[in-house]
């Protein structure tokens, strides 16, 4: 999820200016192969995109995950104006991230921490989609770059190991993936005497209104979507939120309000270029 | 200090330092590392340290928010026969779950000095 209109428009312009040598290589471009080839470009599909530079992952975006702009502005670290300024001025040169540091808006450490957190968060949902009928991205747009610019590239094997570890963490916490995509319904037990849930989970529980799904709660809190998912699983394990029946029809839930359909943006761009 | 690598390089100058890493305790992922990791390697040490961090961070006995103090747990100190393991939580003004993990040779290290240096390091990491 990009943080508001400026992010989206800069993203599409930036990709549009990239020299697009779309993807006619044989076979489905897999992450392993792109890493081995040292590829540069975007591996994209309807669940999001992974951006690679020289075979390492430099950015990930997923419509269900709060992006960096959202994270930095939700807690008040940056004003929306400061973020938009960096996107508008640094985006065309693919260096919006570095511009934030050069202008003294963020320390390099903050930029790296916030970006890595957003990158791993999005990559989890790109490679392990919530909607089980979706699959990981399989289209590759060569030479596409992201407007944030490279910040701290992540080797593909590190990313894949981390996604696997996150899957196992969820499974260990409460082996019911049904809670991941369903509205979070608190169980009112009227008993507030016992030890309450830990601080992060308390915020998630307080935001659970029986309508919002875990990723919508994450967005409302400006928080990691994976951490929120893990909290919801732990709350379910503790009996504090309801676990939907496995055979119940999955409630699709409304799509996040301003989610860019990335593959659609790519199709529009391709069509414009074909004119 | 230039970001994560600069922070870790400085951590390695703390007397007795054998290894340092910056770890996300939600999952146990090492975001960066320097020097050597205790026992096996950085990656498994990071995952183990993250378990400890999460237990401390998420249990009400340690996190009871008296007064208006921010950031409930600051450091975790594990003393072993030959080494110290120090974990220092990094406070950020955006959502994060990160700590700096320092592994020290007990014979060479000074615990008070190391804790003091670690505090300064984590503060400057996020100081614009």
Automatic annotation (TrEMBL), chain B:
Name of the protein this chain belongs to: Roadblock/LAMTOR2 domain-containing protein
Taxonomic source organism: Streptomyces hiroshimensis
High-level lineage: Bacteria, Bacillati, Actinomycetota, Actinomycetes, Kitasatosporales
